[in-house]
């Protein structure tokens, strides 16, 4: 961490500042410039709040120089992490597609899942516990929904992905050997939940919060990893901006940025990121071209009667068409070009 | 809810659409314009997802016309709600100031609280359970922190406000008769937590999420109220924007907007909304002038050694100065002007 | 346009409102619902300010139902517009790549342009008039820069694209038969400039403003078109959000949304949209996969000594590599999948 | 400027980097930390593009330490600037209110202005040249509007404020001795216009762009000042965020932040910042409490027939009421509190 000291600071003030920093167990490196003096803070800077420094009278600006995420940081772990879910690998060159309905609704799940598998999906998604903006909306099937997913897995032999909203439900998920537990955008900074997921051995799909910076998102991954669970996938699903023609703004820049900063696999969700069926296919292609390790796509056999998010679901036939195109893009991305 | 139908829609398509809506138990009102046909959807529209409608081929645009929040809506409850916390009233003309340290740290709490009380604060705040962006930061004193707050309350006779992060802790809070349970910005859409708080009888201070619209925020209040707890205060604490000179952007517009839309009391937190000690006082005045029913301000006797957020804390003497100015503004706001 | 009337409105108030609307030359269609009354405003609603309606006491909400852009609207012009620049076609299935340095700097222009052409670029870009955030930064070569571009065009036979910042310079551009005049993000709502460009016959590349909604952007295209110049291309170059790991947030969703709303060709600029050389290639691929009709990419032979934006420039060899990958993606996008 | 060098950089790479910086005429100060090496760049860093540095392989992060604005910077000009407009002073403790219609429409101007003056306004505002999102909206009276403003000034003896959109119109404004030339939000980075305004001697009211950071806004002030015109006022009028319940988000934090960073006077415009008549008064009070040096408020005698922005205009009687309240707040702000 670097603190830029105001020109107006006296030598006494600077000495006092240096002493204060050193009392926190850090070393300092003072470098006098023409216009400013710069104090480098060396050691475990996680003990220092940069906002506190910036509020000090003699401090002009503060710059963090090392990232606060460690276990998620590619610097300390240069190799891509490959996560294996019941034999299906994600990351490090392995590309997968998770598909299925927004909500698990009942018997149609197996039909939808079968159609997804036929079209090339390698994992099945479906929500049993549903976070809904309105208390008056359907809140999901709960435990019974998990059981339906397990039946589908048994029948089709595909790993299943489903959202967990409450630490008290972890046992329900672990008992059923749910293959991937998804943390939704609204819970990205539910630190209690993250810590407890970190004590399980199940792969976690961590969605980006609607206003989360990439750094905060990686810190949330760090919460899980710091408790011992290294199997974290990051899922870009759109951020909130001023644009209202789409439900969210799909930040595809995040894909190459994350590949630069972290070794964890990156998933992209064009369904939530656009909010409209008609934009899902082109954005699935774009995410694949940008280098996503996996896609998560909502598919429903009867979108206009879906319990939730029918407006962004593909029908099985649209999904099959999209998968063919995704395959072509994936081939183009992985082809040698010289 | 209104659906605008594309000009290109055939009569058959329109009839099919109307039949589909009516099958959901709603009535329709079709109105043919020169350029567009408008279908009004009448009845319980919470059963219809507007994104689903918009994704239909013949639908151009959808507009919700009634707000989805009911219990929080001023239309159905025109009188201001007044919330009483151990004899201290907020809302409906009653103005209060909650002050204290970001984190409860130990013995200094009583000294800080005493200074706040002397300066005019009427409620004491302090965090025992701390949501921190980094897993490596101090996570708060937990239960022992609650006990320290209870001791302060006993000694000074002031109600206490403290954050709850996990539904499993509710018992700890209720057993100690915590006067106000605060829900942090990151948990504003932790629906599990909201529902369980709705089953208590304790006043709730609901902070706005960093990317939450005013409507979503009111829907989160609705989650609490729909379970039976009507004592909800809304706290504006800044939203996330592109501006980086302050920690957040203080959306003071939200104060008169909320007074227009809801009967619930509005609290403003200039400490988090700015992030810098030097901006807290002017923004406390601005929030008071905009019509806030209460302020929440961080005060620490030794900010440079605070466990958290020292960079935005006022010292007791700065707080006393701010309180004098807030008092003058409050007098100006409530004075008759004719 | 639709106005939703409050339940509390009296019949007199409603009658008064309807009379006021009709006095503006519009017709009305009143439809009484259970909870609300809806007034449809029929006719030339461009005479009515929706914010004015919303501020009226009896009006709850206002919804515009027809888009305010007409000439740019796909509804009234279903076929893709194809723009021809000195024989090179953009749109309607024709895909092009514009490449070259951020600033025209002198003799190296021809070398860079030659390398771009060899790698497959079909148009040359370069800035002669440069909008710079700081008055102390290099402001471009001006007229001499235009001449250098013209020389390059003569030598290589490729159309040239360059930015215009001031209506008084139009003559300089028209005299030299500049093939495409680019309007920068900061001038997207410089309505004076837009109108005068609308009176020329030169194709215009209209960049999206940093905080412009898609609708506002189309209204700016409409400004140009309403004066008679239909040759407008829209260029997505990133919007401003809270994310700071990239210079801007590349809103690739805008590509399919624009294809839905307008018949105009869509260009994507991954250089400005990311701000970092290392992210340009993946985002060029993503934009191509999302359906862009053209790319605009910055290339420099010696980025670390470029006058401007060297941090986002590709070297000629990186550009050649990117072009090979873009070609593969373009093939995948246009391939029949059944 | 500081460059943080990656741990992985070799000594050769570092030496090469240092040589490159020094070849640009800067000095360097290399400081080896445990985890990172930091290179301080000393001298005229405006020659270096921070994005270019960050794109270099061995560079981890770059931090600007001195602000790029010089003439606008309080560091180099600690005293408040006081701007005098025909005898009316703004800044340095002088508080003013500019009021009048959005658009100059004709004869009603004098009536509105007289009512504003009676209520306490000290300057008259009105738009003759109007930037409108739609080419089909009324574009203002132009030159004739300026003449009407001049007549009002003659009659009432008050300075006048009006918007300039095109550098070619400067003569029209200067010939009429317009007292304050306003630059609208959409032109905040119309650098051509800014530079030419910098060559006049007329006070400039520079509105903040909808997506402009405070630093960019100050750089635009710098554009004007660098050409010799020091009389710049900065006007906060709301920024664009995701919130749609108001037209813009009023960033009142900007007021104390600007007072910290610059010596220039700060104006606040609650009319555009909210967009709705009903929120103007509370936000005018809030801006005054936050420390604004002036307010700009839209007043119209018949808002429902105003040419533009009637939805955010106060009637003369609402304005008179607001002025009384503003006066009380201003008294409270300037009162000694000890």
Search tags:
homotetramer, 338 residues, Alpha-Beta Plaits, TIM Barrel, 11 helices, elongated
Describe the structure in your own words.
Four copies of one chain form a homotetramer. With 338 residues, the first copy, chain A, is of the alpha/beta class. Chain A has two domains: 2-63, Phospho-2-dehydro-3-deoxyheptonate aldolase, domain 1 (Alpha-Beta Plaits); 74-334, Aldolase class I (TIM Barrel). Helices cover 35% and strands 18% of the residues of chain A. Chain A has eleven helices and 14 strands. Chain A has helices at 11-23, 50-55, 108-119, 143-156, 170-175, 191-197, 214-226, 254-261, 270-274, 277-290, 316-334; strands at residues 2-5, 27-32, 37-42, 59-63, 83-85, 88-90, 96-100, 123-125, 160-163, 180-183, 204-207, 232-236, 266-268, 294-298. In chain A, the strands form three sheets. Chain A has an eight-stranded parallel beta barrel, surrounded by five helices. In chain A, strands 2-3-1-4 form a four-stranded antiparallel sheet. In chain A, strand 9, helix 5 and strand 10 (180-183) form a beta-alpha-beta unit. The radius of gyration of chain A is 23 Å and the shape is elongated. The two termini of chain A are 42 Å apart. The model of chain A has no long low-confidence stretch (mean pLDDT 93). Chains A and B meet through helix 2, helix 6 and helix 7 of A and helix 2, helix 6 and helix 7 of B.
